[in-house]
User: What shape does this take?
Amino acid sequence: MKNSALTLCLLTFTVTRRLTCNLVRSETERPLPSNVDICNRALSVIGTRSSIASMSEASPEAQACTLHFEASCRALLRIAPWSFARATILGALIGAAAGTPENPNGTVPLPLVPVSAANPAGSTPSHIVSWKYEYAWPPDCVRLRQVKYPYEQRPNSSSLVQLWPGMAGASSLYPGGADMTIESRVPYQIALDQDSSGNRIKVILSNVEQALIVYTALVGDPDLWDDEFSEAFVYYLGAHLVGALIGDKQVDKAMLEKASMLATQARAVDGNEQPLSPNHTPDWIRARGGGPIPGMLPCPVDEDA
Assistant: This one.
């Protein structure tokens, strides 16, 4: 009797182990999603009953997918600070103001002085408000999230660290300094300048030396996407393919509505995977009258944690 029970236990263990190994093996051997796979899923949801084998083939489906894939990806990446697309780099310095450590003698190029409320057209030099540093726009950036101090540099001890800006009925500033772990929002401005050849270039203006640029990168590899983002993208791309391949406005509308719903769900899942930061102003705070503090420098709102 004991031998029978032992044999049954060993048999159960062996079968379970084989099933587990097979499951792990099938997961590891599963082919990674590609742009072609994503396009075929989009073609499927709009009901074309056709597929493509390559993005470069001469079929109308492949041509439509190639035309709309990157633009759709950029648009969907811009709507939220997706964690999988977060990139941080040391800003590439283009120009530094006269008197800074990088440019003590005021040698050109100098940071751009954009026309604004503080710098109206025709301002005299003595009234011009300028930025200290000008950084190059990252080539793969689809959305700028933050400009931050470098890791070894913090505001001095007399500074004030901004905590939940605009929170109604509460102090929005917390005294702190170099020992504080809560980071203040750094003012910056996105602008257009010209390179040495006279071509227009996108730049980032800031007063932070050796600034870190935090941004959403153009992640075109579906293997790096979250599953929920991938599903939302399939329907968003499908909406663009409808006009090129079917021309049915009702289907187009249905695809956009489904994409919007899935994108909202994807944002919720992505947000739950990120730690809550005091730099983030929750929706419930904004709903109670949260807004900019009078007299403070404008800091672009970023949902990034």
About this structure: The chain has two domains: 31-81+226-272, 85-113+127-218.
